Amino acid sequence: MAEIMYCLYARKSTERDELQALSIESQIKEMLAQAERDNITIKEIRRESHSAKTSGERPVFMDIIRDIRAGIFSGMLTWAPDRLSRNAGDLGTLVDLMDQGKLHEIRTHGQVFHNSPNEKFLLMILCSQAKLENDNKSINVKRGLRAKCEMGYRPGMTPLGYINLKYENKGEKKIILDPERAPIILEMFQRADRGASGRDLLRWVNNKTNFVTRTGKQLVLSAIYVILRNPYYCGKYEFPKKGGVWYEVAHESIVPKKLWDSVQEKLTVGIEKAKPGTKIFDFTKMLTCGSCLSGVTAEERFKDIVDGTKRRYVYYHCTHSRNLQCKEPYIREEVLIDQLVQLLDTVDIDTLAVKERLATELARHQIFMKKVLHKNGTVMVPEVDVRSYAKHVLQDGSREEKREILSCITTKLYLRKKQISTKAPRKRRSHKVRIPQQG
């Protein structure tokens, strides 16, 4: 029989050595000593830091399998069976290689497995036991997390404003209020309840307080809204997220429940919730902010009427993409349309594109007359005033028609102080500081 060429395989499940029973280098040291004692030839040493609970996801292990199939190795040396596999898929691959006669031997610390029924059966039992331990560990961890939640302590790091006490006994670690951040977060909710916007709160917390994150950074606008919408601050949380199970905290909360509810109403009052990007407005992407040259976006609000209906209002405003402090006011859509109609007499319009669009509309009408009303006849494109037609569409056309007409306007439009203009804002002059030369 040809000499067995071994591959020494050392694995651990995590990069943190303190969580391992034996580190990779310790495994290698022990197995090299065993190889010398048993007088076996190790052709190559392979290392890997990867969990073995899922089949086919260990790149180094899969390379070894391919090398065994290619005849490079015919034996494996490892610390224990659970280093090779904690799942049925990889275990089946090893046993299959032994059945094919390509893997002659597997050696571990104190055991040798050959291609014999009893020894393969024992290998399968030991690796299956490792899988059972792994599965039970997952169940026990989930049970422990549920027990912790039922005690009123959410697993993981608490949000800003709370402190996890790390040096208590395991299972008895408490959560207390952060004496520096908690009062600021409470005042943040109080200001929001009085009508402060997210940007107002951002300016206040970054310019008037010493509030920073745990990494020493100032808050950004999105973090303000994450804090304001987090129910943990009023004493409740969902775990796991979107799991539908809610728990009450066992420690003191920063924000009273009544105050938190009031802030939530103000964050959503009058605004229909919609997924980002699903709202399409008539005149977005057609205007530029006349102050900071950002784009112009829109939002809709609804007002309850006495008769039980709702009235819809659309407001256009700066996106603040270039200047967070831009103070350009909002403008109602009705006012915007009136100004566009008046401005159509002065802007440049792609006349040919408008006429082509009108011809398409008339052709569509002709098809409708023929197929639905059963009336034949050719509709000729009349000689119409393009600007009058554009005004008609802006006032009475559909959203798609309005956007098509606006796309024919070749003049750039600016929105400044609630007025639409074709004049670009003046660029501010930069003041150069002259540095006196020395010597």
Commentary on this structure:
The longest helix is centred in the first third of the chain and has 34 residues, at 117-150. The protein is built from 13 helices and 15 strands. α1 links the parallel β1 (5-12) and β2. Helices cover 39% and strands 16% of the residues. It is α/β, with parallel strands linked by helices. The protein has helices at residues 24-38, 59-69, 81-84, 88-99, 117-150, 182-193, 198-207, 221-229, 257-268, 333-343, 351-371, 386-396, 399-406; strands at residues 5-12, 41-49, 75-77, 105-108, 111-114, 162-164, 175-177, 236-238, 246-248, 287-289, 296-304, 310-318, 331-332, 413-416, 419-421. The protein is elongated, with a radius of gyration of 36 Å. The strands form five sheets. The protein has a five-stranded mixed beta sheet with strand order 2-1-3-4-5, with helices on both faces. It folds into three domains: 5-144, Rossmann fold (3-Layer(aba) Sandwich), CATH 3.40.50; 162-268, Putative Large Serine Recombinase, Chain B, Domain 2 (Hect, E3 ligase catalytic domain fold), CATH 3.90.1750; 287-421, no CATH class.
